[in-house]
Request: fold
Amino acid sequence: MSTLEIKDLHVSVSTEDGAKEILKGVTLTIKDGETHAIMGPNGSGKSTLAYSIAGHPKYDVTDGTVTLDGEDVLAMSVDERARAGLFLAMQYPVEVPGVSVANFLRTAKTAIDGEAPKLRTWVKDVNAAMGENGLDASFSQRSVNEGFSGGEKKRHEIAQLNLLQPKVAVLDETDSGLDIDALKVVSEGVNRFSAGGDKGVLLITHYTRILRYIKPDFVHVFVNGRIAEQGGPELADQLEAEGYDKYVNAAV
Amino acid sequence: MTVIDETPAAARAVETGKVSSHLHPEPSYDLALHPVPTGREEIWRFTPLKRLRGLLDDAPSDAHLEWTTQLPAGVTLTPIGADEARELGEFLPSDRLAALAVAHGGDVLLLDVPADAELTEPVRLDLRGTGLDAVVWGHLVIRVGRHARATVLVEHAGAARYSHATSVLVGDGAQLDLVTVNDWDDESVHAGQVGIRVGRDARVRASEFTIGGDLVRTTTNVEYAGPGGEAELLGLYFADAGQHIEHRLFADHTAPRTKSNVVYKGALQGEGAHTVWIGNVLIRKVAEGIETYEENRNLVLTDGCQADSVPNLEIETGEIEGAGHASATGRFDDEQLFYLRSRGISEPEARRLVVHGFFDDLIRRVGVPELEERLLAVVESELERHVLAEKPTA
Reply:
């Protein structure tokens, strides 16, 4: 059983004109087995929420709490958060020249499990996770994300999700820039992850398209650093038809 | 960068005429033409002269390094007279350090790989310094005959104040891998001029690894005896607190359709670590159809370090295939570290991965498997001094 609980989260970034508040009090609870979709227009603070949960140093939490099963996530370093069971699939995965995917995955798995994976099964697991996400075995020998296409980077993120098996996955616009085939592959990967019913998913997206393949239990509309409305899957259909205008106009 | 213009075809002969440039002064045996530097000269401005500790003094010495050699069958190492070295066509001294090494080096050691030899084992020259009391002058010629294939490993270690002038004469169609490891004790001072003349259609890969020593300053000059020669110059260096490591490269395209490719990568850590990389390339009028690229990257691991990186390209003909250079000096990329850490990898481990990754492609290109492993181990042990030992401020 795991629960990610975000309470009244306020987050600022420093700009030339001083601190600028991006998140203005976000409250959200993700229990295991639940998939939450956060939808909102550009600049509403969706990605800031994702990176704040993961602990990116650029974001300064000024108020509020984030806990995973009662543990204070905000007191943890970036890597401690991952070892505690959080995973962030990034919108723009970072290239790490000279570090092979195989070495990276093994190092990450070892860090998260606290012991090296069993050699016999691990190579098989890696090849399976890569293959299921449409990446052939040669990717293991390539440098992390270097020279990957946009779609390959996203599929590599989901392959990591499948291998590392966190408690809660935050997917930051994993669907953006994907063609329909890649979108299906990625969605299947997320669905495999959550199929056991004991994983939490926070799916951040600008578009409703991915919600045809990943069924959310809850949909939150994110506008101007806050949740403006929440509901079930039907809210996504409504957004598909009406767009964000009424929320954006109400927030101004 | 590719430079192209409509200069008419020039004479198709090897050209070694004078090109006036402050970047590469006229070489000469005459000490009077290599006065004691003030430190303001272009070729001296990065070097802390005092720390050369006698290598600029015109004083004879008959001290030697301790030599241990492994010579595959057919390869010889013999002393020859200085006159003979000149007749073989050695490089003239391009600075005072090399001029003194030639003036006081006494007999020249000639390493001779005969024509058509196909060496299956590397030639090994292990040179160990046995003390700092006396300056050691060294004067060497490495000759690789026509169509020979050889790997030559030169290792410098121990305690020494050592300055040498080495000429590497690579015959037509020959292939040479020359690997130099500078892994001196902390107090050592080392200056070296290595001149490489690449024969027609010959290929040379010269790799240089500088890890230890208080001050190391090497100057590698490449020129071409005929068209079609290729030179790949690779370097890896790791400067710790107080160390001065200076690599000066000069690719002098003296013949048409020749290639030079320079990649030097360094890491710096600790107060006063200083590295200098000078990458000079001259494309002479005759050197049509050449290709050159030079690259220097520095990774600054802690505060208090300085990395100087100066690429220079002088072009006298635009009728070339390509010419370019790149230089970058930076700290750890925060986004790379964040990405690795977001997968549970601890900060020291993430830094370790990034540094290994930084050097990885270079180490793979050396092409001497046993050395690859050793270099990986060197990087690892250097990392243990700082990157893995302390938690740098975020």
